Amino acid sequence: MKKQLFAAAVTAGLLFTSFNGTASAHEKTYKVSSGDTLYRIAVNNNLSVSQIMEWNKLSTSSIYVGQTLTLLAPHTHETTSTTSSTYTVKAGDTLWGIATRNGMTVDQLKALNNLTTNTLYVGQVLKLSGTATAPTTLTSNTINALIAESKKYIGVPYVWGGSTPSGFDCSGYLNYVFAKVGVSIPRTVETIWGATKSVSAPRVGDLVFFTTYKAGPSHAGIYLGNNQFIHASSSQGVTISDMNNTYWKSRYLGARTTF
Fold this sequence. Notes:
This protein is α+β, with helices and mostly antiparallel strands. The protein has helices at about 1-20, 40-45, 50-55, 95-100, 105-110, 140-150, 170-180, 190-195, 245-250, and strands at about 30, 70, 85-90, 125, 165, 165-170, 195-200, 205-210, 220-225, 230-235, 235-240, 250-255. Residues about 1-25, about 75-85 and about 135-140 have low confidence and may be disordered.
């Protein structure tokens, strides 16, 4: 009888593990439930919305109940003895911690990745080897390219968590446009604010920040000159607005530069 009870317990344990165990690191997926959003799934798994969209080949942020999403970048199951030359920032990471674990100094890590501050954001990819390159400098060509690129997407609809020409939110739009001209900025308005340098008055190509639905920087756009800025508006999509407009003027926080 004892043997039978033991066998039954083992069988029950195996069944419980099969249905409630955590997926292996090579097969990490998530099944969409009612009420889920890409933003919430990303935050709960220390990822960015753009990573989940890219890894699952999503052109919009729309998802449906029962949809299975991969939470890992495309990968192979083959093992390799080579040390990774990049590191993807996770929640709680610091420059000091990443540098120490990889036998580097903070200054070396910052130089290698052209970082001017200690600000990191979840999902940021850092180089751990290679040669440091000179940071992007302010040139009229870069600014002209940035403004031209930003205007290509006028009329693109606003999509919460969107970071592609199918639909942008305000920081997704900035991240996408700056990347197109070779300038890397963080993914959220707060982290962009923290990673950029304050200027007393905006110049063409600088970023202008506003406080909208919450305290602190929560919206931003690219300054075009003559008190005009281009941004992804929640009501109009990508559009050009006047900073003298009562709404924007009362919510203006300041200007910062990436250059």
